[in-house]
Amino acid sequence: MFKTLKQCFSLLDKKQKKKIFFLQVLILIMASLEIGSIFIVGAFISALGNFNNFLNLHPGIFYIYNHFNFSDPRDLFIFLSIFVFFTLLISSFFSIFTTYQLAMYGSKIGLDFGTRLYKFYLQKSWVFHATHNSTQLINKIAQETLRITNGILNHALYMNSKIILVIFMFLAILIYNPVVAIIGFSFFTLCYCILYTSLKKKLNQSGQVLSKEQELRFKLMSEGFGGIKDLLLTKRQNFFFTIFEKSSDKYAYHTGYIQVLSLVPKYILEFLAFSSVILLAVYLLKFSDVDLSSNDILPTLSIYGFAGYKMLPAFQQIYYSLSSIKGSISAFENVKEDLFESLKKVEYETKNNNLSSNLNNNTNNALQISKSFLIFKDVSFYYPTSDNPSVSNVNIQIDKNSIIGFVGPTGSGKSTIIDLLLGLLKPSSGKIFVEGKELNDQNIINWQSKCALVGQNIFLADSTIRENIAFGISSDLIDNDKISYAAKVSQISEFADILPYKLYTKIGERGVQLSGGQRQRIGIARALYNDADVLVFDEATNSLDLITERLIMDAINQFSGIKTIIIIAHRLETIKKCNCIYVVEKGKVVSEGDYKTLSKNSKLFQGISGLS
Q1: Over the stretch 196-228, which tens digit does the pLDDT of each residue have?
Q2: Domain-by-domain residue ranges, the chain?
C-alpha cells in the first residue's frame, strides 16, 4: 500500500510538489497549535479550581499579575480567560484553513489527473483508439481518477496531518507523564493495527469489485443510449436495465461495505477510550499522591481527556484513511500506466514547448504538394491484435490534383490504406513518401494539416449546424464566409434554410434530429470548410439519395485539377470520373487503371460495379 502511495505522489509535477511542501508546513503549525491548546485548557481548568494555588505554582503568571498591576486576582483570571479564548479561536481557524487547503488541493489533483488523461488519450494514435473501448477510457477519466483523489490522495493528505498531530500529542504527553503516554499510545495503536490487518483483504476485494462494476455501468449506459432506437423498436430495454440494476446493487453494497469497515472501529475505540479515562482516574488515585479531595486530579484528567478527545478522531482518521486507500488501490492500478505515460508526455512538452511550432515552421520538414507527391512503397500494416496483415505490400502513386478511387469488397483493406495515407496509422513495414520525403514524426503534422476526411460515420456534437461544420473551432472565431461556401457546395442550404434558426439550429446529440444524408452533408461541408488540399471521402456518400449524391459529386468534381480527391465508394457513379482507380482485395492492390480500362480487364471490378 505504501508503495502505491509513493507512486501516487510521484505522479505530481514540480508545482504540485511545492504545494505539498507548503501543506506540510501548515500541518506542522496546526499540530503545534493543537498541542498548545490542550495544555492551555488544562492550565485554565487548574486555575479555575484554585487560582491562588495556580499563581504560586506558575511564577510566570504571578509575574504578569504584578507587572501589570492587577488589583484583583479575578481581573487576571478574566484576562487569562480572554487569552485562552483567542488562543483556541486562532487554533480552530488555522485548523479550518489547513483543512480547506488540503481539501481544495486534493480535489484539484484529481481533476488535473482527469484532464491530463483526457489530453493524453486525445493525442494517442488511431491504432490506440481502434483497439481500446471508449467506455473504458471515459471510466478512467471520469471515475477512476476521482476514486484515486477521494480514496487515496485526499486520505493520504489527511492521514499525514493526523499522524503528525498524534506524534506531537504523544511527545507532549510523554513529557507530562511517560507511563500514561506509552501505555495509551501503544494500546490504541495495537487496536487499530489488529482491526486493519484483519479487514484489509476484504477492503481490497471490495475495491476491485467497485472498479469492475463501475466500468460495466459506464458500458451499459453508453451502449443503451447509443442503441436507443433499436431498443425502443425491439422492446429490449429490460435486458440492459436488469444488468445495470444488478451492477448498481453490487456497486452500492461494496461502497457501503467499505464505509462500514472504515467507520465501525470508531465506536469500539470510543468505548475503550472513555473506559481508559475511568481507569486513568483509578490509577491516579491508587498509585499517585493525588488526593481525591484536592483539585489536582481535575487539571490532570482534563489534559488527558482533552488529549484523548483530539487523538481519538486522529486515530480514527488514520484508520479510515488507510481503509479507503486500501479499497481504492484497484482504481490506481487501473490507470497507473496511463498516468505515468501522460506525466512523461507533459514533462517532455514542457521541456520542448517550442518543438511543435518549430517543426511546423521548419522548411526542411514542410511538405509541398506537387506532381506525383504521394507514393506508397511496399507498405504493410498489422493491427496489434491481429497476426494477419490488414494491408500487404501496397505500391501506389497519386499525382497532384487528381481524382483517385479505391474499390474492393468489404474488409479488403481500403479504409486501412486511407488511414495510412492520412498518417493516422504508421506502416509496420515499407515507406510512404510525400513530395519525395518519407512521412515521419517530424512532418506528419504538416501533412495532416493539408488533408480532410469525410468518413462513413460522421460525428456530430450537440450544437448548431454552423459549429458542427467548423468542428473544434470556437464560435466567435468561425469564418462565416467559409461556412456559407461549404454549406452551399455540400447542399446543406437545401434543408437548413427551412429550419427556424437556419445554420444556427441545434441538431441534438450525434445529430439525432437529422437524417443520415443530412449528417453526411455536414461532414462534407466540414472538409470543405477546412479548405484542405487533399479531400478524402471514405464511402461518404453512401447515406445520400441518388439525386443529392449526384449534385454533391458534381460539386466535388469541380475541384478536379485544383485539389487532390481520394474516394472510397461502391456506387458506380461516384468513381466514374476518377483518373485512376485501385482495386483492393485481401489487403493487396490487385489491379489499377481508369474506369474504362478496369471495366474491360478486371473481373473483380466488374463484379463490384455490377458489370459482370
Answers
A1: 677 767 777 777 788 788 778 877 777 676 666
A2: 2-337, 374-609
